[in-house]
Write the structure tokens for this entry.
Amino acid sequence: MVPRVVFTPEALDLLRKLKAENGPLMFHQSGGCCDGSAPLCFAQGEFRIGQNDVLLGVVEDVPFYIGGQQYEFFAHTLLTIDVVPGRADSFSLEAMEGVRFITRSRVFTDEEAAELDAQGPPPRGPDAFPGSESA
Amino acid sequence: MFTQSLEMVRSKTHGKTRFENFINGKWVAPKKGRYFANHSPINGEQLTEVARSDASDVEAALDAAHAARDAWSRVAPAERAVILNKIADVMQENLERLAITETMDNGKPIRETRAADVPLAIDHFRYFAGAVRTMEGRISQIDDETVAYHFREPLGVVAQIIPWNFPLLMGAWKLAPALAAGNCIVIKPASQTPFSLAVLMDLIADLLPPGVVNMVTGSGAEVGKPLASSPRVAKVGFTGETTTGRLIMQYASENLNPVTLELGGKSPNIFMADVMDQDDAFFDKALEGFALFAFNKGEVCTCPSRALVQESIFDAFMEKAVARVAKIKVGDPLDPETQMGAQASEDQLHKIMGYIDVGKQEGAKCMTGGKRPDLGKEFEQGYFVKPTVFVGDNKMRIFQEEIFGPVLSVTKFKTMEEAIAIGNDTLYGLGAGVWSRDGTTAYRVGREIQAGRVWTNCYHVYPAHAAFGGYKQSGFGRETHIMMLEHYTQTKNLLVSYSPNALGFF
């Protein structure tokens, strides 16, 4: 299985820390200005997943989504979630820790792209991740 | 220059190195006594400390706003206008201080804060001071005995959440119309850039009745969420990114509250072949128009971050246009010769460098820039990038995603129809630019582009009384225009019967 989204070790550390403090988490890759074009981290269920949101992957039980229309432009790249110093002002949970999740990208190789084609498109919608239905 | 500037700003704000929340006309410490440091992107040094607030502070601000609400809603429009003009006056008297504060906190060049940010903010208060006095309702005579009187009434207490790219100006765009319309406000500046709004609160503290404007600083999660989801606000105004826009709408929907959202853009700047018909002032203007993606270091929702150049002039145009970009002076934002300053934060810088990398990976050709400049030891800790121009294809990620930095993606088109198609091939619809000597062409392209603001033979001008807002995923609602008074009022219809007789039902 070729993953569509992976985390660096530093990002995983931060993820685990935030999970310990906040409980189950979720990510949504935001478009747009300011603190956008970046992955935003929320408590599981905080952000309502719509019919067109795409579940790119699940990392340590944390689902990672992207808007359906946005996905079309991301489909040919692997997303690597990393951490850098900074202060986001979004509603992302790491905002006050003095760090920021960011998305680094790499274009898939031809082999990876072929495998991904065979895997089929990633699932969409609120039921794509079990347990993501609002409490 | 940096140290002296900071000294000057501090000395004029009673030597403050820390700002509390501004609630009920006073500076009030956050209930949990937590603060966070605010740094300058010019060199990483600390500028000030501000309150790290939470829901309890938001509640205190809402208490103050509600206490002031009734009286403020009854203040005559003419009197509100006087106050808005006094706010403009005091900002004018302190223009330099506000400009320096903004430059130090955001990293934008002093040239821009002096000439654009602060004067536009001042003018905004003046515009709404005038506009509020023209507000009227309507009267309809339904029949001989029935009259419908329509009044515009304030919403009450409104929540406003503003971004870090134009902290003061975005503050003015939100505060001025909401105040003009008779509302009380709780506003949250971006936590990267709280400094200029805090200085503004200090300047206007005595001009407004206590509780009419309240400022609470903190993060989106700790302050923005309780504010936007409070049942005690009647509306939420937000400018920022897409996902957060959805979240704000979600929170507001819990209370059936209206929202206005200004989100991102990937604005196409379209250059028709005729711009090169002559080597005159207009062609020079068009070349500047191409380079305007560097304004505010690209951190503008309407950044003209895609340039569409007609194929027949492509090579000749690009030769001159790229040269124009290569000459842009990146440097110390406090130096009046600097044309492009520092990116607003470290994570912004990383994001931009990440996109430059994606562009190269996708096969876009880098014509200039593409890396960080060496500005010497003093600015080593600053977040500077060179203005960058890529040539590629509209399906690439650097053409579709908002980079929010000084990175321009250029592609070519053959016909007007193709320009329109490529221009519209984006999730966003905030801004666009059309450059042509032919009025009909300019008009036709402008009417076909699905964006709320189409600059025609210009770019990056934001006069009050020209409506501004998005189509598609760029949000909804129109700012910088009297339409805002509609967004910040609600209609009361008094349906009055002058008939003494029953209807005949019961």
